[in-house]
Write a sequence for this structure.
């Protein structure tokens, strides 16, 4: 693995991760071509890029039944030492995303992300994301009428940014799962889907906070009371701020008092999704999703 | 009582880390004077922000090993084109490399290979990156002619480069147009995307 990553770094130094490009002048060009060719011969076929993230598309059923919702799971296995990002990357990065292509008449619920971790990257840059393994879930609703026979394709285009302390490499995969139509249920991958469904946070509704302009006139301070109880150990806050609103200096007291800085001061009301993760009395990690409603500051 | 105190401390510590203590020395703030700095360019010459008093300046955090930088600089060439377009209106563009393992020698090679039309500054100590709170490459800062920081954040709203360049909102372009026309910049701060800076 180390050799493959070094190979990739050399590739990146050439300034292009998609093909050989001239390096520094014709002389270096030849030398570099020899080096790259040599490495290509030593390494697995060029079509198999170093797989930092192995992606698989699974379904929790072996059949599609008319009118019967089922789940698709995008299982991502991440090389040790690397991480990918949550639906919100934190202070910057790129979210892991999934684009769904469904047959006619099918619809899907929004993608569900399991509880992320917080990590601190060089320069104290906070990231939200995943290491090791994660399965993103999406619930699919078939129409009530389907042809009696045949197979239907369910396709996704998955994309992510994989980073280690030295390098970030974007990746994507197109995956399809074919499911035959049938009347009878036939579950599949039950344990895996149970495991990851348990890590999806629960919704705890909406909370309204307050916003006031800061003394410096360039930002605002938002405050709110979140539903934290004594039974919630090690609470961690994940703020799903949109790219145009910078939220930082967040402080959460054990009783749920939240304060944070917003830049710039919002001109309109904001609905800010928050995720609180904690450990429960059984030492299991849980999560609560809260929609924080921040009205426009009513102070001039 | 002791237990409550311990958990209080724990919570404070957790959020102390999350709170502005990240890049805690950050002095650059949109709406305030952009802090001065001096760095060596790809020829080893000192370049200071104060050299460009009275001019509109763009700072672009840069790392040629980052695929996002490669896309903007080499594949789509959006940034070189933008820099040249605004150079004609007297805007100064400065690329800053805060990668801890790259220095003047490395920058010189990059600069030559890319035929860059603007300086590439060596910040391998990461001091200027931290001063500005730069988190990713590319991370863009626009400073007006009065030396005030008027924009900080992503180059555009399309991290994956999925849309055509003309369909994207290019925050740098918008900030420069507004600044040169003496108007207020509409979008002053966004979250940068790209590769984390290798401090």
């Amino acid at each position: 693995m180390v050799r493959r990553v070094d190979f990739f770094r050399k590739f990146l130094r050439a300034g292009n991760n998609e093909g050989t490009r001239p390096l520094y002048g014709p002389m270096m060009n030849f030398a570099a071509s020899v080096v790259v060719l040599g490495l290509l011969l030593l390494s697995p076929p060029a079509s198999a890029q170093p797989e930092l993230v192995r992606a698989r598309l699974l379904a929790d059923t072996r059949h599609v039944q008319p009118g019967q919702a089922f789940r698709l799971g995008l299982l991502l296995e991440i090389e040790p030492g690397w991480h990918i990002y949550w639906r919100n990357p934190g202070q910057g990065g790129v979210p892991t995303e999934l684009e769904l292509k469904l047959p006619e008449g099918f619809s899907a619920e929004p993608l569900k992300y399991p509880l992320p971790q917080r990590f601190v990257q060089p320069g104290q840059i906070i990231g939200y994301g995943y290491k090791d393994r994660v399965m993103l879930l999406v619930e699919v609703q078939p129409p009530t009428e389907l042809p009696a026979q045949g197979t239907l394709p369910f396709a996704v285009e998955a994309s992510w940014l994989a980073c280690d302390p030295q390098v970030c490499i974007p990746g994507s995969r197109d995956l399809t799962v074919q499911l035959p139509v049938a009347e009878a249920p036939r579950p599949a991958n039950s344990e895996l889907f149970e495991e990851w469904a348990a890590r999806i946070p629960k919704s705890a509704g909406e909370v309204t906070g307050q916003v006031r302009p800061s003394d410096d006139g360039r930002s605002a301070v938002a405050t709110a009371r979140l539903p934290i109880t004594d039974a919630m150990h090690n609470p961690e806050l994940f703020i799903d701020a949109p790219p145009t609103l910078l939220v930082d200096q967040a402080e959460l007291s054990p009783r749920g008092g939240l304060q944070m800085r917003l830049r710039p001061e919002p001109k309109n009301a904001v609905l800010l999704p928050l995720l609180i993760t904690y450990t429960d009395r059984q030492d299991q990690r849980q999560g609560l999703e809260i929609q924080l409603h921040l009205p426009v500051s009513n102070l001039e | 009582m002791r237990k409550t105190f311990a958990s209080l401390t724990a919570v404070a510590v957790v959020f102390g880390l999350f709170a502005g203590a990240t890049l805690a020395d950050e002095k650059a703030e949109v709406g305030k004077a952009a802090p001065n700095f001096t760095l060596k360019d790809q020829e080893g010459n000192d370049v200071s922000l104060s050299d460009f008093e009275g001019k509109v300046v763009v700072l672009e955090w840069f790392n040629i090993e980052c695929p996002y930088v490669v896309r903007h600089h080499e594949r789509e060439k959006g940034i070189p084109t933008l820099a040249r377009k605004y150079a004609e209106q007297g805007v100064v563009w400065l690329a800053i490399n805060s990668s801890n393992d790259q220095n003047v020698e490395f920058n010189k090679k990059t600069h030559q290979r890319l035929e860059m039309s603007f300086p590439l500054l060596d910040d391998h100590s990461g001091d200027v990156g931290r001063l500005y709170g730069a988190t990713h490459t590319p991370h863009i800062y626009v400073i007006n002619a009065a030396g005030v920081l008027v924009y900080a954040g992503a180059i555009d709203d399309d991290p994956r480069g999925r849309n055509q360049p003309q369909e994207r909102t290019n925050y740098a372009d918008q900030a420069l147009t507004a600044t040169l026309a003496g108007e207020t910049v509409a979008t002053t701060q966004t979250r940068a995307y790209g590769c984390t800076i290798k401090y």
